[in-house]
Protein 1
Amino acid sequence: MLIHGKCHCGNIAFTLAWDPDPREIPARACGCTFCTKHGGVWTSNPDGKLTVKVLDGSLVTRYRFGTETAEFHICSRCGIVPLVTSRIDDRLYAVVSVNAFEGVDPSLLKRSPASFDGEGEASRLARRKRNWIAKVDWTA
Ligand SMILES: [Zn+2]
């Protein structure tokens, strides 16, 4: 399955190849202080392949907080946050926002709350290496 997503104005777009086709897509409503404020709900497939296309990089704000090991990519024109990346051991990992999906049947989304409070930095990075998308192609 090819999942397409983009911010509202289309400046940040992504395609996530999910093979084999998912019977359900985990949708984690993140309980961190930032995601609580903007309603961040994320998914990833460690075997997926993500292609990101940014039309105008000057209109992307990268926001970090807390351990500063992840970057939220915020479209400065429309305010949407389609993805988060984390660079670990020189590899770029990513999760994408199910809120930015285009044309995906909502009944595929298996929503659940997620809280990573109290997780140490080492276990946080290890979890991302296990769960986040490990193949990320970036075209600007
Ligand atoms: Zn935008």
Protein 2
Amino acid sequence: MLKKIEGIVIRTVDYGETNKILTLYTRETGKVGVMARGAKKPKSRLSAISQLFVYGQYLFQHTSGLGGLNQGEIIDSFRSIRNDLFLTSYAAYAAELVDKLTEERKPNPYLFEMLYQVLHALDEEKDPEVVLFIFELKMLRVAGITPQLDRCANCGLNEGRFHFSVSEGGLLCHRCLSVDPYQIPMTKRTSELLHLFAHIDLSRLGNISLKAETKKEIRHILNLYFDAYSGLYLKSKRFLDQLDRFNLE
Ligand SMILES: [Zn+2]
């Protein structure tokens, strides 16, 4: 049966001389693999639609195995991302995160929308680090490991200054600091931003400008939290961290 589905290419693997296997994240069906025969040939009608991060309508053979891609139509190719190495790396991380946190054919329209929003925001040249903070916090929710960011994770106190505790899974108030000897001090601004980023809708993100130290603090906390709870090792993330260090030097 031929099926027409809206999707975003989150992974491509070359197959043989001329073919590509695409992993699409689709609105209706979740993650699906399709075989794009001949897509590596520049003149193929499947070539443009088979590029990473393309958002399009895909018409393919819907079978229990790997269906063949019949044709497609681009809705948005996110050109600015494609033309920029840094933006490409951020988008690659977002796509890999979706890939790793999902199983085949489990629909999640919310996640599809999130992925679209993240690509759209990067393409519109919103601050890519902030875009990723927001996306990561949403993905933690998808993975069921969302940190406690509106009150102390240990006693529930919801005012005052907080530190962050990876082992307690969120904020730690001044009374509870002894609970975790590895708690991470952070500025009030950082704890407010973590809370904001966990709740804000990416599509409503304006032009926000953060100090480099604030971003560094948030990045550090999210990295430690992700490493501790997600159980994921993402190649695209390592590459991004290397780029970050390169940027700072
Ligand atoms: Zn407390």
Protein 3
Amino acid sequence: MTDASRAPRLLAAMAHPDDAEILIGGTLFHLKSLGWEIGIVTMTSGDCGSASHSGEEISRIRYAEAKTAADYLGAWYGCAGLMDVEIFANAQNQRRVVELMRRFDPDVVITHSPADYMVDHEEASRLARSACFALSMPLYQTRQIAPAPATKSTPALYYADPVDGVDAMGDRVFPHFYVDITGTLENKIKMLGLHKSQRDWLLAHHGIDEYLEQARRWSARYGRESGCDYAEGLRQHMGHGYPREPLLQDALNSKIESRTTELRNPQLATDH
Ligand SMILES: [Zn+2]
């Protein structure tokens, strides 16, 4: 349940800087324009995302880029300070994530798919899922400096689609519903482009603006699956103890699409 005395609050809890933009950027812009407060938490600041900078340098650069991108959306940004390829769902990391999430106090959280192409994403998903449960437990102490109070309730939890729409075995993971992002695609692409170091890196490597083109391609593919131009996919966590009300589906109402019947064709499901 959202608190009627304040604007609803959505937190994207992702592994790395740029994951939120790539997977759910268009959805975030829709919610922002509906008056939602948006927050983005990344587990790491992307300290392994470079072939030319030191870990410390690229971490600083990518943190600043993530902040700039969040500013462009008008979103709060927090980083849990974990390291790339060392995101693990353990007690120490859990405390940091719960602390950050309590500071934002979300009504809805979107994280990675529980099954994804890399362990960082899957562990970030586990951390976010477990953190949602712990947020409102007053006896759960984060042991951080000046800790935020426990929240009033457990937020509704949603999962973005895995990267490329498949799990680590290459099997297609279909979303529960699609969000038509045709109207917000350009904002999503612009926000993603603010992760300049990643864009430049891929540009030098591929000779084309692959970073942005790939995001456009993926959104178009989801669009084809749901009968609109561009889309993103989401699933809702329906397990015991988490809100099952369709908060996002209701808020995004006119933008919600479902899978087209032609999609039973497996050819399209594996088309890149
Ligand atoms: Zn990532």
Protein 4
Amino acid sequence: MTAAAQTTATHTTAPISGWGGYPTQEAQVITPLSLSAYKTYIQQEEVVIARGKGRSYGDSANAATVLQTTYCDHFIAFDTATGLLTVEAGVTLRDILKVTVKHGWFLPVTPGTSFVTVGGAIASDVHGKNHHVAGTLGQHVVSITMLLGTGETVTTSPTQLPDLFHATCGGMGLTGVILTATIQLIPIKSAFITQKTIKAGSLEEACEAFETTSSSTYSVAWIDCLSTGKHLGRNVLMVGDHADNGGLDLTIKEPITIPIYTPAALLSSVTMRAFNTAYWAKAAHNKSQTISLLPYFYPLDAIGGWNKLYGKAGFLQYQFVLPKTDGVANARKMLTQIAQSGAGSFLAVLKQFGPANQNLLSFPIEGYTLALDFKMSPSVIDLLHRLDDMVADMGGRVYLTKDAVMREASFKATYPKWQEFEAVRHKYGAIGKFASAQSQRLGLA
Ligand SMILES: Cc1cc2nc3c(=O)[nH]c(=O)nc-3n(C[C@H](O)[C@H](O)[C@H](O)COP(=O)(O)OP(=O)(O)OC[C@H]3O[C@@H](n4cnc5c(N)ncnc54)[C@H](O)[C@@H]3O)c2cc1C
């Protein structure tokens, strides 16, 4: 390491993992102090991957050397008249909301946690509860500046180097390092959401309710995965719209933190069945209420380190999407298979997706997506491989930002644009420079 390099970044060696805690890897963590410092490390290090907050669940931000974006967290421009926002890639969605909500602007698309960086969210082309009306975050990105493997900094947008843009949104950091991004925010009149809760006795009822409530901006269903037989798939659907009243003051409560790993046995099927039964009984059908933005969009953010509830071995989150045609019947088959395995999570999240976009490795396709957690064990990996085969046969795919175990063949069968993606990486000097544990597992160059 040169003396100059030492002063432009912090360096540590530490075990790193994604939010699921599996797999972990010993890594050199380089955290550049400024945007201009990245070039040094791109040139100095053989192979790197960008890393944001490590909120992806698996190994997409794991590598022997990672460039962490923590210090590149500055706001560059915010036009309060138009809602056009330019930030460095290490800014978190939470940071953005603290600044923009009071001026009447909200994120066009947001995942279920605010503790993610803009760079990570674009690289995953994240979706929210409004995919059926708004698509993914990438569809609201106006432009990106990024550092290529050649050391060159370029600006890319849907009209400027569009091939690079469509490979970078959803490209899991494999095209280069996103340095800054300009995003078009959406106008809001209030820091509140009007939410309606609908209890649905089955998956079929939930999907019908998605259709009848499709004019609502946001919708998501929590499925009880421990109920079987006629109750299989019973769920609580929550639809929401931005409220008109209540003012623009954002209520921010910092999370209470789970300080230590809990024994994984705490999450036994007995405790979880009791939780689900209570949750189902408590939910009121057709109840409307007004909720502040943060607890509505990020209920899990209230408990810092909730991932530790799964114990030291960690957990795998499995999110797949199934095409709309036969989607409900196929989702039922998947849930049945998971229930029979006895390994499934106690709750699953069901969302509807609108049409796919042009981004080469973007996850959503029109249909239904389910996300479940599995406590880590060797038999769970085998189960997920079997589920991967079922998803592929059904014409669906698994979300890369959640994945930790997918095999190369499943990836290549379900992401048909992977060769186009590799061609763009080759064109812009990314091959051999940007790689993660995930990209190596999936057979990307
Ligand atoms: C509780 C919870 C709820 C979630 N809910 C949703 C949801 O509803 N919808 C959804 O779509 N996702 C969801 N996610 C996933 C999460 O939004 C993504 O994994 C996101 O990418 C994490 O951002 P990060 O900053 O932690 O990125 P990391 O985990 O650090 O990195 C993720 C990927 O982005 C790349 N990357 C990071 N920064 C850059 C950069 N500057 N330049 C280039 N590449 C970069 C990394 O190389 C890696 O491939 C959820 C995650 C959690 C923990």
